[in-house]
């Protein structure tokens, strides 16, 4: 089936999905710019890469947001955990570089 033979509504929905995907990528990039700065501050101040209390608060907050947005809270938590794992990895790398420089 060629795209010209697909229903117009399907093509419009797909275009919306593509726009949302692009926005998500840009938002994730901005989030990682912020968490990179956090990692630098943590490293300079000798703070741990992970902050379990903060992570717990974030899980609770995002689960509530997901529920109010009619999104599966378990999915939201898995998504956040995936991001946090990557952030911690970045923070650990930053701390190792900071320690090597001192």
Automatic annotation (TrEMBL):
Q: Does the keyword Isomerase apply?
A: yes
- One Pfam family assigned to this protein is CM_2
For this chain, one GO molecular function annotation is: chorismate mutase activity
The Chorismate mutase domain sits at: 4-95
Q: A single GO BP annotation from the record?
A: chorismate metabolic process
Q: What is its EC number?
A: 5.4.99.5
The source's domain of life comes to Bacteria
Instruction: Please provide the record's keywords in A-Z order.
Output: Isomerase
Indicate the enzyme's highest-level EC class. isomerase
InterPro entries the UniProt entry points to: Chorismate_II_sf, Chorismate_mutase-related, CM_bact, CM_dom_sf, CM_II_prokaryot
Q: What is this protein called?
A: chorismate mutase
Q: Which organism is it from?
A: Phyllobacterium myrsinacearum
């Amino acid at each position: 089936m060629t795209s010209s033979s697909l229903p117009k509504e399907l093509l419009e929905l797909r275009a919306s999905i593509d726009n949302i995907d692009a926005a998500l990528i840009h938002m994730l990039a901005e989030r990682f710019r912020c968490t990179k700065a956090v990692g630098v501050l943590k490293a300079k101040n000798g703070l741990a890469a992970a902050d379990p209390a903060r992570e717990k608060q974030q899980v609770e907050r995002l689960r509530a947001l997901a529920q109010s947005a009619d999104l599966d809270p378990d999915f939201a938590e898995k998504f956040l955990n995936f991001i946090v794992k990557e952030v911690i990895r970045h923070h650990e790398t930053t701390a190792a570089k900071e320690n090597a420089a001192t």
